[in-house]
Amino acid sequence: xxxxxxxxxxxxxxxxxxxxxxxxxxxxxxxxxxxxxxxxxxxxxxxxxxxxxxxxxxxxxxxxxxxxxxxxxxxxxxxxxxxxxxxxxxxxxxxxxxxxxxxxxxxxxxxxxxxxxxxxxxxxxxxxxxxxxxxxxxxxxxxxxxxxxxxxxxxxxxxxxxxxxxxxxxxxxxxxxxxxxxxxxxxxxxxxxxxxxxxxxxxxxxxxxxxxxxxxxxxxxxxxxxxxxxxxxxxxxxxxxxxxxxxxxxxxxxxxxxxxxxxxxxxxxxx
Length: 271
Hints:
The chain is an alpha+beta fold. It has a single domain (6-270), classed as Jelly Rolls, CATH 2.60.120. The chain contains four helices and 15 strands. The protein has a five-stranded mixed β-sheet, with no helix packed on it. The protein has a five-stranded mixed β-sheet with strand order 3-2-10-11-7, covered by helices on one side. A five-stranded antiparallel β-sheet has the order 5-13-8-15-6. A hairpin with a 4-residue loop joins strand 10 (190-196) and strand 11. The N and C termini lie far apart (37 Å).
């Protein structure tokens, strides 16, 4: 196997005295991150995760790659095909994680091309080091999505939040996703940050630089592959509880490489 490890810059939080506020974009050509905090671009080694032996796993590194061929022909029409795709995701994810039930609650389309974003009114690639949920916002998400009695019942047992990320066009070469090995992330570098969107207020985690962070990516992911990313785990038994991640500018990408077009689907998995 040809090792496509590289070096690239990732954008870390510079911690300040005030809690950062992340304003989610609405999509479109001008979509971009807006956060009232300072950041620094730090060059890091990004290792080829395809070379890992044994392969990365959700419970150890916090992410894992799987083959998955979807029956959907046009992911931009996901709103008309949600039930079919979510059934595919349940069939894929539940046996892998050993959960009892699964609830898909979000599909987010992204591109690093202003032209593609304008054509489909989608969002930008998230190019800051982050994790999607805090302990508080993960529990709030369950309570927001389920009725009160069911939510409290589910919260009595372990649950996780998983993202299933995939390219929906050509291979993911420009602005690919890199994940930080959960074993290398310590709490001293993780900061709760408010996340404001059009319809709700939540929290995510921003991350400051630590030279001990170990970064990985799967070069040239194709439409027959999906990356599972664990963004929360209520268990406190030593397994990975989060996978910090970010898009990055790939120095190995050719000048004429296709723009990234991707979709991530978020889901609650209950045990």
